[in-house]
Write a structure and sequence with these properties.
The protein is mainly alpha-helical. It is built from 6 helices and no strands.
């Protein structure tokens, strides 16, 4: 009969604990999203339109997790709006970049506070992302695909706790 030592059992136990933590994280995220009435679709589902330059319309078919990755990554939204939309949690930036952002007038919007947001519909938000927002420091992002835009908009709906993310 083979008896396993404590050291031989540890890797399996660590794997089980990590797997359980991942399971809890994913389960919580799905539960949270479903309570907001939002759909979570795979990134392979279709976006609003086939063209990368068209304006979105209709039901929002985005992926929250991809939207978060875009917001905090290639979309560089987090430079001005903060990591995960927390306006006070900006990433480490070059000194001159941070100084320019601090001088924005009007300052960047707090995307987690719907009461202070001027753009009220996804159509307005999509236009501001694609074309920039006149009178602010928001510059156009012409690199986002329709799917990137749909993912980002659904993520923005999540962080502002929007009960009607499709609007």
């Amino acid at each position: 009969m083979e008896v396993k030592t404590e050291v031989e059992r540890r890797p399996r136990m660590c794997f089980l604990i990590l797997s359980f933590d991942l399971f809890l994280s994913v389960s919580f995220s799905l539960l949270f999203i479903s309570n907001l009435g939002m759909e979570m679709l795979s990134p392979f589902d279709s976006a609003w339109a086939a063209s990368s330059t068209s304006q979105p319309s209709g039901k929002l078919n985005g992926n929250v997790m991809r939207g978060r990755e875009i917001f905090n990554g290639k979309g560089i939204c987090y430079y001005c709006h903060g990591i995960d939309g927390y306006i006070g949690r900006r990433p480490r930036l070059e000194t001159d970049t941070a100084a320019l952002i601090d001088k924005l007038n009007p300052p960047s919007s707090d995307l987690r506070n719907p009461e202070v947001l001027r753009l009220k519909t996804n159509k307005e938000r999509a236009r501001a992302i694609r074309e920039g927002h006149p009178g602010t420091g928001m510059f156009p992002d012409t690199t986002m695909t329709d799917q990137d835009l749909a993912d980002t908009l659904i993520y923005l709906a999540l962080i502002r706790k929007d009960p009607h993310p499709e609007q």
